[in-house]
Amino acid sequence: MIDIDQKGIPSDLSIDVNAHALARYAAIAVEQDLVPIVEPEVLMDGDHSLEACFLVTERTLRRVFAQLYEHRVPLRAMLLKPNMVVPGKKHALQATPEEVAHATVECFRRSVPAAVPGIVFLSGGQSEQEATANLDAINRLGNLPWQVSFSYGRALQGSAIAAWKGEPANVAAGQRAFHHRASLCSARP
Q: Is 154 exposed, middle or buried (0-12, 13-18, 19+ CB in 10 A)?
């Protein structure tokens, strides 16, 4: 995980160490006939701008792909599980889904080879509504060289857990909430 702050974080060294670890994991997975899911996540904590996230995400992805090349990981045999390009949670100016989509796609077009078959986005701390709207906006841009999907945790399960409340009587309500959110995330533009 890569953090952003105003004091020079992330350093080149921290990005390099993360990229090397991800590539080594991917190489081991491929050696074992598994599909590596490479997860270079730039965190959305803090007060960084959309532009700062763009720059750090691009640096991170470029280093990850350089390391994947060095470790001879076939790009067609992996999935990328990254963050979207979003401002920090504490930033005064939050981006619209369209701004997130344009920044994310531009960043990825500049740094993710078209040979990568799929990108499964993390929600990365976004709310259910933000993650769904941002994914929808990315998909609406269309004409992407990769298949785009999601790998959400909290942003897929939050409403379901809240509806269920751990009570057997609420299982059906939790299932409906989960189905509703999953349907929104997987809807075609």
A: middle
Tell me the three-class secondary structure of 145-177, residue by residue: CCEEEECCCHHHHHHHHHHHCCCHHHHHHHHHH
Q: Report the pLDDT value the prediction gives residue 16, as an integer from 0 to 100.
A: 97
Q: Enter the tokens of residue 172.
A: 């059906």
Determine the Cα angle at 130 with ends 81 and 152, to 5°. 35
Q: Let me know: does 41 contact 86? Beta carbons within 8 Å.
A: no
Q: What's the rounded Cα separation, in Å, for the pair 30 and 11? A: 29
Range list of H helices, 32-127: 50-70, 97-111
Percent of the chain's residues with pLDDT above 70: 97
58 is catalytic: no
**81 is annotated as an active-site residue:** yes
Catalytic pick from 7, 31, 39, 51? 39
Rounded to an integer, what distance in angstroms lies between the CA atom of residue 128 and that of residue 153? 10
| Of 165, 162, 132, 127, nearest in space to 150 by CA | 132
**Catalytic position from the list 31, 41, 51, 81:** 81
